[in-house]
Amino acid sequence: MALSPTAKxxxxxxxxxxxxxxxxxxxxxxxxxxxxxxxxGAPASDTHYNDCSSYVxxxxxxxxxxxxxxxxxxxxxxxxxxxxxxxxHATLQAHRAPENKYRIGDVAMYLxxxxxxxxxxxxxxxxxxxxxxxxxxxxEAGPEATKLGYRNDLTAVYRHPALL
Length: 164
What we know:
Elements: H1 5-24, E1 29-31, E2 48-50, H2 52-67, H3 85-92, E3 107-112, E4 117-125, E5 133-136, E6 144-146, E7 154-158
Parallel strand pairs: 1-2
Antiparallel strand pairs: 3-4, 3-7, 4-5, 5-6
Helix pairs in contact: 1-2
């Protein structure tokens, strides 16, 4: 179920806030693909051990909680600590974001075909493929702000159905 325009704005504001705080405290974020992932509900300024998909799930969860407008887990596992980029793709694939009209909360999916390395980022500044800013946590150095074209294996950008 889609949120009202006011609820969407409140959710997006909180999602952006979480990611900006995480980027500020990047020295407390450590890259780990452990499952179940941890840190659900913890402040972005706490120590975290996560990867790209759990980072997005944590941001969505915290934004829903802080805005008062919770939405379903973008990883498709009801915020249980499971799921990954593959499950997120299955959950979101029917909801492509309009090209060059990206909004805060849109999720970019990357797939390095030769190595089958999946990656995802979340939009924190609305705009076009050139101007939108995404927050990424795909390595020990991060979370960090990126642009869509920072990798050459962008598959698609999706919008969570609650944010349509």
